[in-house]
Amino acid sequence: MSQQPNLQPTAPAVRDSILDTATPVPEAGVVPREQLARARVLVVGDVMLDRYWFGDVNRISPEAPVPVVHVQRQEDRLGGAANVARNAAALGAKAGLLCVVGHDEPGERIVQLLGDSGVDPYLERDPALPTTIKLRVLSRQQQLLRVDFENLPAHEALLAGLARFDALLPGHDVILMSDYAKGGLTHVTKMMEKARAVGKPVLVDPKGDEWERYRGATLITPNRAELREVVGQWKSEADLLVRVTKLRAELDIAALLLTRSEEGMTLFTNDGVLHASAVAREVYDVSGAGDTVIATLAVMLGAGRPLVEAVSLANRAAGIVVGKLGTATVDYDELFHSH
């Protein structure tokens, strides 16, 4: 690697120690399609529309020293919790999505795209809310600009969502909280308590440093930056284990899966530490990879597969999805027959 001279001398040892201290995750076999079709996953969280404008840049604006993009193509994709639900549906599970969107054009577009993806939409519509959009302007595969349109949903729409959650809970096997800190999970603690009371597993993709609200999660899936915000910077794998163990005990979190990009993923449970090494890829676009990971975990657990097997398959799915540009999905055949 060209960056090697700049690395701290301890870096290779630290990376090796992940493999030294952790048991490798065993390779999972094929799960029958019918099993996945029985999995019923309810995704709750913040939804957004990922809008892409593609164009050419041939001149600089006479008004300011900025490029002029002549937009020639527009593409809309489901983002946030909607992308998680789309990933679950792509694997063949029954996926429901509970969220709040606005009464506007991007809100209608989300409804349309969810229909195309085979996701069951349970949408609360807030007329005062502009639907969250992340608009990216690209030229020759380079992102020139990102523009965000967002606001917090109204109290009434969130309470309506909480009431709808009660009605949906019995019809789903796994509850998945997809937090993008846009206000859609204001009542996450109440929802998790209700799910736990009836014995449903709750998976959480967290945001921010207020993890008290995720107390009692069955499984939480932070990336390195998200975990660092909560436990601080760890100095070694042993230090990481101490910090994660303390956090899990304090918040009654059964399992924590740390996603580490090119280093793979590490599972912390009371049974010890397991590590899955990343599949090396030429293209490495991690946008939306976390969505694919947690969706795969939810589907496998909903299909009655053990957690360790679910982690192995989620790691395989991540290896496939990072080889695709932008937020993408992995379908059944890719997951089980492409390697």
From TrEMBL:
Domain Carbohydrate kinase PfkB: start-end pairs: 40-329
InterPro entries found in the cross-reference section: PfkB_dom, RfaE_dom_I, Ribokinase-like
Enzyme class: transferase
Taxonomy, superkingdom: Bacteria
GO CC annotation: cytosol
UniProt keywords, alphabetically: Kinase, Transferase
A GO molecular-function descriptor: phosphotransferase activity, alcohol group as acceptor
SUPFAM superfamilies the record matches: Ribokinase-like
E.C. designation(s): 2.7.1.167
Pfam families with a match to the protein in the record: PfkB (PF00294)
NCBIfam families named among the record's database cross-references: rfaE_dom_I
Protein name: D-beta-D-heptose 7-phosphate kinase
Organism: Paraburkholderia humisilvae
